[in-house]
Write a structure and sequence with these properties.
This protein is mainly α. The chain folds into two domains: 77 residues, no CATH class; 178 residues, no CATH class. Helices cover 48% and strands 6% of the residues. The strands form two sheets. Strands 1-2 form a two-stranded antiparallel sheet. It starts with a strand and ends with a helix. 22% of the residues are buried.
């Protein structure tokens, strides 16, 4: 059995020799029964079928007779309105500022299409993006929050320094916590790294700190929307399962805390 990816939506497909796949189970795009090497996982490329040359007992790659221009048929009619998925610009080599602001836009307004493709790169990229978003968010809070004017400079530096220092750990803990509920609801099939990645990019809600009074509330609601769509895409799960998992991750500590208060007050 081999695991490969759909060229249209990025869905991971398990290929069996006895059961050829003719369409993607996720986006329903029609596919050939076999894939070319471009759609295979990197670690599977060495396992291509070979045939033996009886004259010199050497192994030669099996010839590929597929016409690459016509290898895949077009997706079904009701999927033609979908845009072509593209990963976060931050994970590509390009201009720093352009990539940062384009990724911010992608995460805020196109989370499903942005994160539907599998990611096999380094975790450093999205950790660095999360750190920058946190830095911008703290800077906006400093400019707009009335509380900082009552604090000494040394305390402000201490608060900011600790916040930035523990940010990688907070991202890991937060992502692991969310992934626990995703696995419980059967919506975390592609591993904890995918969940932490979406959690990191959802930090783009820092931009809502610019809105007076209601900015934090709007940001929390938007963050939930990004997580629902982004994790559903990254794990090839349904939005319904992802929504229930994320809602449970919010309600669980509230219920436990309320139960604890009830038990303490009843004594």
């Amino acid at each position: 059995m081999q695991k490969k990816f759909c060229p249209y939506c990025g869905h991971r497909i398990t290929i069996s020799e006895n059961e050829p796949v003719t369409s993607c189970p996720n986006c329903k795009a029609e596919l050939e029964s076999t894939f070319d090497s471009q759609s295979m996982q990197p670690d599977k490329l060495a396992n291509e079928q070979v045939e033996t040359n009886p004259q010199n007992n050497s192994f030669e790659p099996q010839p590929n007779n597929h016409d690459k221009d016509n290898e895949y048929s077009q997706p079904l009619e009701n999927f033609k309105h979908l845009e072509t998925p593209e990963g976060p610009a931050w994970e590509e080599n390009g201009n720093f500022f352009t990539a940062f602001f384009k990724t911010t836009f992608q995460s805020l307004f196109k989370p499903y299409l942005t994160f539907i493709r599998p990611y096999h790169g380094s975790s450093v990229r999205f950790f660095w993006f999360f750190f920058l978003c946190l830095l911008f968010g703290l800077a906006i809070d400093f400019l707009y929050s009335p509380y900082f004017q009552y604090l000494e400079t040394s305390y402000i530096i201490l608060i900011y320094g600790l916040g930035l220092l523990i940010s990688p750990l907070s991202l890991i803990i937060g992502g692991a916590y969310i992934h626990l509920f995703l696995k419980t609801f059967g919506a975390g099939g592609n591993g904890i790294k995918a969940t932490i990645r979406i959690t990191a990019y959802s930090s783009t809600i820092f931009i809502f700190n610019l809105i007076p009074l209601i900015g934090n509330l709007v940001g929390l609601i938007w963050n939930f929307t990004i997580l629902v769509n982004g994790t559903a895409a990254a794990h090839q799960s349904t939005r319904a399962k992802t929504f229930l998992a994320l809602l449970s991750s919010i309600l669980a500590p509230i219920v436990l805390f309320s139960l604890l208060l009830y038990l303490l007050s009843s004594k």
